[in-house]
Amino acid sequence: MSPTQRAPQQLLEGAAAGDRVSLARLLSVVERGGESSSQVARLVYASAPPYTVGITGAPGAGKSTLTNQLVAVARGGWPSSGRRADSEPIHQVGVLAIDPSSPFSGGAILGDRVRMQQHATDPAVFIRSMATRGHLGGLALAVPDAVRVLGAAGFPLVIVETVGVGQMEVEVASAADTTIVVVTPGWGDAMQASKAGLLEIADVFVVNKADRPGVNEARRDLQQMLDLSASSDWRPPVLTAVASTGEGVEELWVAIAGHRAHLEETGELARRREARLAQELRRVLSARVLEEVRAVGAGRRFDDAVRAIAEGRLDPYRAAEDLLGARSTS
Ligand SMILES: Nc1nc2c(ncn2[C@@H]2O[C@H](COP(=O)(O)OP(=O)(O)OP(=O)(O)O)[C@@H](O)[C@H]2O)c(=O)[nH]1
Ligand SMILES: [Mg+2]
After folding, report:
1. With b meaning 16 or more CB within 10 Å and e meaning fewer, what string describes 81-90?
2. Is 153 in the pocket of ligand 1 (CB under 6 A)?
3. Which residue's CA is the closest to the ligand 1 atom numbered 1?
4. How far apart are CA 213 and CA 193, in angstroms?
5. Nearest protein Cα to ligand 1, atom 21
6. Hey, is 261 helix, strand or coil?
7. Which of 35, 50, 116, 310 has the most Cβ atoms closer than 10 angstroms to its Cβ?
8. Are 77 and 2 within one domain?
9. Judgement on whether residues 182 and 101 belong to the same structural domain of the protein
10. pLDDT at 171 over 60
11. 56 near 170, Cβ under 8 Å?
């Protein structure tokens, strides 16, 4: 084994033994992408996936506050349900806070740290902000790997917070076993969620900031939209919460557990995870193809081809095939 291969292996062993510095380093490698990141992915892909909960919604809806409260409740374990007489313990919880606003990430990350400070000294809780560094495509690849790293390090539950604006963030949020969409009371919030594509991805809705007026209207709007949407065997419950006081958080945890039980009992959990892997493999393929394009899109051969096209000796389609062909045989 070469030293470059050993490093991630040693980090993973450290992380699995509870060393948070090793875990943080592994996640940094995953965040950066590239060859070292693929090495980490190879080490962790076969380990048991943690149960993943996505939390998304408009900026400032209270996602971090809710996550913070949820972590505290989840530490008490999965509630007992139908098939399970006893509650299942959750000995550690991982949180990935995805920060899409790279130019302003300093402030946002600091904000999340402050809001989740309650758990800062709890060794059973690991909170990590991941920045997009301006390329969301990279993030979509990094998040599933980061979740698997946490799984391999022994975390049975991972919560992923993303802001529900933009297609890629919504995709990242929906790449969870249970996706929670947070809305707030106020005219049109449910409509905005619908426009942002959040209606389709929600397994559970939370009307947060229920200490403000307009809660019933927000619930009604969501219920009406659910009435109109295609029926499936799971209708997302619409809950209310005041994340800042913890009100409604127990109920949210019970709803998450209920959704998990539904997924397990119907076999949908395995189907969902497989669909997610298919999507992930497509992303990896796209990234690889783009790399190829970048490689053949510069250099002497490429310049020669451009000249040939300019002089009318070659058409661009033929030139592209020549370049790709030369690459695959070289
Ligand atoms: N009144 C009230 N305020 C709340 C509630 N939940 C959160 N807040 C406040 O709303 C603000 C935003 O909360 P965050 O938890 O940071 O929201 P967020 O969705 O994570 O925000 P971004 O990550 O920046 O998109 C903070 O000032 C919270 O204290 C609530 O239930 N009621
Ligand atoms: Mg937040």
Report:
1. beeeeeeeeb
2. no
3. 209
4. 18
5. 60
6. helix
7. 50
8. no
9. yes
10. yes
11. yes
Please report, for the domain that includes residue 92, its CATH number.
3.40.50.300
Domain boundary among 250, 266, 282: 266
Can you tell me which atom of ligand 1 is nearest the CA of 97? 23
Over residues 137-147, the pLDDT tens digits come to: 677 788 999 99
Q: Ligand 2 centroid to 64 CA: how many Å?
A: 4
Residue 279 placed within a domain = no
Alpha carbon distance 300, 114 (integer Å): 53
Cα 169 to ligand 2 centroid, rounded to whole Å = 13
pTM attached to this predicted model: 0.87
pLDDT at 108: 43
In angstroms, what is the span from residue 237 Cα to ligand 1's centroid? 21
184-208: average pLDDT: 85
Phi then psi dihedrals of residue 176, to 5 deg: -130, 165
Question: Which ligand has the nearest atom to the CA of 62?
Answer: 1
* CA of residue 60 to ligand 2 center, whole Å: 7
Q: Is the CB of 65 under 6 A from ligand 1?
A: yes
Taking 80 as the threshold, does the pLDDT of residue 103 lie above it? no
Containing domain of residue 2, as a range? 1-43
Classify residue 271: in a domain, yes or no. no
Read off the pLDDT of residues 57-85 as tens digits, 9 standing for 90 and up.
Answer: 888 899 999 999 999 999 999 987 656 66
